[in-house]
Amino acid sequence: MTLRGKHLDIAASSAVNGRAPAAKAATIRDVAERAKVSVASVSRVLNGSDAITETTRQRVLDAVAHLHYVPHVGARSLSTSRTDTIGVILPDLYGEFFSELIRGMDLAARAHGKHLIVSSSHGDTEETMAALRSMRGRVDGMIVLSPHVRAANLAADVAGRTPVLVMNGGLDEGGRPAIAVDNHGGAVAAVEHLIATGRRRIAHIRGAAGNLEADIRAEGYASALVGQDPIIVEGDFTQAAGHRAATQLMALDQRPDAVFAANDMMALGALLAFQEAGVRCPEDVAVVGFDDVPLAALVRPTLTTLRVNIAEMGRRGVERLIGLVQAGANAEADTACEIVRPALVVRQSTAAAATAGSNPDQTAASLS
């Protein structure tokens, strides 16, 4: 290996190491030269334009295949003003809820020839902003799912002209395109169902303090109670939190005969704690969750819950955002907040003792 002036003799270096020099990647000009067409014609073929003859299209595709040409995404986005990429900012990437949500988003994105960039904010406003800034210029639009209204609204402001769809933030999104779950109505349905099954001492395992969904579900729980004061134990939407909360409830002088957990994972943690303590469900205590994650139908007893079709909500979010992107400047006219109404799914965890072995999955009508 020798140095010639300030340049390294790459050929000599490669020979010494027993490797041939790396082949130079083909460019769009190489494709145009081989296909004997203009660069503009190659670009039109690669962008799917109809303003090209079939003969020219085939020559370009043959040249692309022969040269193993890979279009430069950055250059293509400059010419089309589109990246065909959607940014998704979630509070967390862990757990069945977010797994189902991303699955629905991915299916919709693939169906439309789009790609996803997914980032987690860990429920923190500053991290939401950092994730958003990192995506600006790299995506055509963003979906922001935030447990805090402030973070969701800030995200929409910071995004500038990039379309933003807010998901799951709440029913009042300040005139922004949004999809929100009726958390209050779902919580009321859970408590009313427990009252209808004869439960009179109903406790609530709530989500993290300051989390908008947790706050609204707790409000719905309290508003639906009849003849009892609220019994609320703090949680954080994790299975471990549900287990701890159930242990606290069992230590009360007067144990509850029912528990409404703010999500399924805490409900499953509570079920485990009751089983470990020899407390029977549903005979001694009934349990209701929220979300209807896939695991809810697989545990025993199967879990009564409020069904939010999570994957479908993810699919709808992507399709709604694609519509905003395609609308361009006209997207400002779309300020609708779509409401997802949970449906009560009655399973074994709230059945009366005499019917505990009956139909494990009886779905009630959606909330009106």
From TrEMBL:
List, for all copies, the residue spans of the domain called HTH lacI-type: 26-80
Note the InterPro entries from the entry.
HTH_LacI, LacI/GalR-like_sensor, Lambda_DNA-bd_dom_sf, Peripla_BP_I
Q: What are this entry's molecular-function GO terms?
A: DNA-binding transcription factor activity; transcription cis-regulatory region binding
Alphabetized Pfam families for the sequence: LacI, Peripla_BP_3
Q: Which domain of life is it from?
A: Bacteria
Sorted keywords for this record are: DNA-binding, Repressor, Transcription, Transcription regulation
Is the keyword DNA-binding assigned to this protein? yes
Name of the protein in its database record = Catabolite control protein A
Q: Which organism is it from?
A: Brevundimonas mediterranea
